[in-house]
Specification:
By secondary structure, the protein is an alpha/beta fold. Helices cover 24% and strands 24% of the residues. It is globular.
Length: 378
């Protein structure tokens, strides 16, 4: 989108209306458990999330972190197992079938990752945008369609079918279709997953401008961290819980130059639990348990020095030798002592001993004495 194009556009006359107070998205201790062949999988483990009206938030996480499960609940396609989730004042856990249909038509809009899934292939861009207006019997359909296509920068393809448009044009037409009925919340599941970097930036800017002009709250679920550069707030989800947040704002320095400032926060749930950023954990070698210290204005976190301290060998005597004798048995290597004990004299019997035969007994300190011929005393 260029500056000239932005200047020529006019905001649509109708915008998202809200008859509720508080945030547009509120999740408190949200739990979702799936059972497959007797095995339970806990996709969400007490997730907490709060998104204010008109905000643009990116929910970032790896595969299996719980992003898609959360999006299915917020769109009304699934129900939570526990906790509470409300969107635009609607309690998602207690809707009837009729209320769910009305919710999906008027309260939330949805943009899928697959561009072909968002639009009817046999309808033109203008006809796709007009379709939800026809279903809801909205008035002034033609004017509304023209305003939305102009706002999203795709008025030049209003008469084309999806196969005749680029992927970025299809996604912008899909955004116009999703916000046609003035929903309070726009949910997007990997909206740039099939686009290159340049076209992704165009689509994200279109969603942000739609939020500003229409007052719609936008939640983008993605695994691509580069999307964070196009939104004010990024929420990291890990292991079924929100772990960290990054808030961005601009500051002007003393020279009048604007700078984008990003500050990272961790999220504390209602039970006082929080997740430290994985980079911090790796850098400091935090594991098992950490040491905490309360300061006047902050809490210090350190690695567990006691557990990580190497074990030193116990001191031992320089002349001491290893004693393999089992406990309770006389020691094979008795400790040296200053007292000299006399050895008892050898006892000999009269049955062939050297003394009995009148021969000299072998010396105890001569190991070969027993093998020498005895000397006869003369």
């Amino acid at each position: 989108m260029t500056t000239t194009q932005n200047a020529t556009r006019t905001a649509p006359r109708s915008a998202a209306a809200r008859d509720h107070g508080g945030p547009d998205i509120l999740c408190e201790d949200l739990v979702r458990i799936y059972s497959t062949e007797g095995v339970e999988i806990q996709a969400l483990q007490g997730l907490n999330l709060r998104v204010e009206p008109g905000d643009v938030v990116a929910l970032v996480g790896a595969s299996g972190s719980g992003k898609s499960t959360l999006l299915n609940i917020l769109s009304g396609l699934d129900r939570p197992t526990g906790g509470r989730a409300t969107v635009a004042g609607v309690n998602l856990g207690s809707m009837s079938r009729a209320q769910r249909v009305h919710y999906q038509r008027h309260t939330v809009g949805f943009v899928w990752q697959q561009t072909s899934r968002n639009l009817m292939p046999f309808l033109t861009a203008a006809e796709n945008v007009a379709l939800p207006l026809l279903i809801s019997n909205a008035r002034e359909k033609r004017e509304r369609v023209g305003e939305l296509l102009e706002l999203l920068g795709v008025s030049d393809v209003s008469g084309r079918r999806p196969a005749e448009m680029s992927g970025g044009q299809q996604q912008r037409v899909a955004i116009a279709t999703a916000v046609a009925n003035n929903p309070a919340v726009l949910l997007a599941d990997e909206p740039t997953g099939e686009l290159d970097d340049a076209m992704s930036a165009v689509v994200l800017d279109a969603m942000r401008e739609a939020s500003e002009q229409l007052g719609v709250t936008v939640l983008i679920v993605t695994h691509d961290p580069t999307i964070a550069d196009h939104v004010r707030r990024t929420v990291q989800i890990r292991d079924g819980r929100t772990s960290t947040e990054v808030l961005r704002h601009t500051e002007v320095d003393e020279h009048g130059v604007e700078h984008l400032v990003a500050q990272e926060y961790t999220v504390i749930d209602r039970a006082g639990r929080m997740q430290l950023p994985s980079g911090y954990v790796t850098e400091l070698g935090l594991r098992d348990r950490v040491r905490l210290e309360l300061e006047p204005d902050h809490v210090g976190v350190w690695p567990d020095a006691e557990r990580n301290r190497p074990v030193e060998p116990e001191p031992h005597h320089q002349d001491a030798q290893s004693d393999p004798t089992p406990p309770g048995e006389p020691s094979a290597n008795p400790a040296p002592t200053d007292r000299v004990e006399e050895k008892p004299a050898p006892r000999h019997t009269g049955s062939g001993g050297a003394t009995a035969m009148g021969h000299r007994p072998p010396a105890e300190d001569d190991p070969d004495a027993a093998f020498r011929r005895p000397e006869v005393d003369r």
